[in-house]
Amino acid sequence: MKKPKLVIVPRSYGKYAHNALEKLSHVFDLNYLPMNNLRNDMSDNEIIKLLNEADAIIIGGYGRINRHIMESIPSLKIIAKRGIGLDNIELNAATELGIVVTYARHTMEEISVAEYTVALILACARRLVEADKKVKADKYHERASLIGIELRNKKLGIIGFGAIGRRVAQIMKNGFGMKVIAYDPYVPDEIFEEYGVKRMDLDTLVSSSDVITIHTPLTPETKNLINEERLRRIKEGAIIVNTARGAVINEKALVNQIKAGRIFACGLDVTAKEPPEKDNPLMLLNNVIITPHIAAFTYEALKRIDTAIAEDLIAFFSGKRPIRVANPEVFNKPLRFKIKV
Ligand code: NAD
Fold first, then answer.
1. In angstroms, rounded to a whole number, what is the distance separating the alpha carbons of residues 169 and 213?
2. I need a surface site. Which of 39, 81, 269, 285 has the fewest CB within 10 A?
3. Mutate to test the pocket of ligand 1, among 215, 221, 290 (most ligand atoms within 8 A of CB)
4. CA of 142 to the centre of ligand 1 (A)
């Protein structure tokens, strides 16, 4: 019998989880896309051509799978997102079309992303990247210009108090003695109490935090959430860190506030356009650290995530319900591939 075709978009998929690849190869015909695909600037038709006749797809942060693409690939039965953020998959369309979407939930991905967030906060507060550049540019003697900020007793404002936000809160509260406040309209009071974190409205959080860190998904509601008006109200000398999605912050307004000297430093693992264009003004600012969307990239997390993806895909094609389903409502619809639910 012909094996189902699995198209694997992230080139590094399985590199740190050989068992996962081995198991997948027994069930699927594995197809890695050529280098530098899928790109965000590709047309739908180019994407359709690349993915054509796929029964299953593993997709990372690049490229998009929208309704038109799903409709144009009738063989497609399941999409596995190698991550948590689902903003590059049109989830409602998948549900309506009977396509199951799995993601990296329940793989403890929050551990790596939270630790990376903490690394960015510290790098901003102690100007690590600037300091490294000075030494390597033979400017060691300028060390007195590299004065940092202590975190103990400072206020940390967390926007989006989900898995990652909560882990960041634990580390910064217990490890660094920060006072932690958070904004999240969808989390009940009990969770705030459990973590010893004070619930705050967004405007007060923005104007009173010494460090702001963003952990919401990108949705129509969170796009441009940190807009020009809110950025103008940020406390003078604050640090902003974003490991969620670039479009949550208005980058133009952020640049203006940094240039006006109102923001101490900024750590961004994500930008509105990825990779950022060379002439993006953020790229020219010394107190802005930009990294290439690597917060989840640890050997441990990738091994767990890649193994989980393989388990879910194999379960699905053996007729079972996968564990990490992002659109469970799909099981109320006629599935493109029938399984026991
Ligand atoms: P999560 O679903 O556990 O938490 C997200 C939280 O945001 C939820 O508690 C939700 O209630 C809250 N939220 C939703 N809309 C909001 C709004 N309008 N205002 C305030 N809060 C709102 O997700 P998570 O695991 O903590 O991940 C958060 C995001 O981080 C993901 O959606 C993804 O985009 C991003 N992420 C980035 C990387 C990376 O490599 N940089 C890796 C993993 C996740």
1. 10
2. 39
3. 215
4. 39
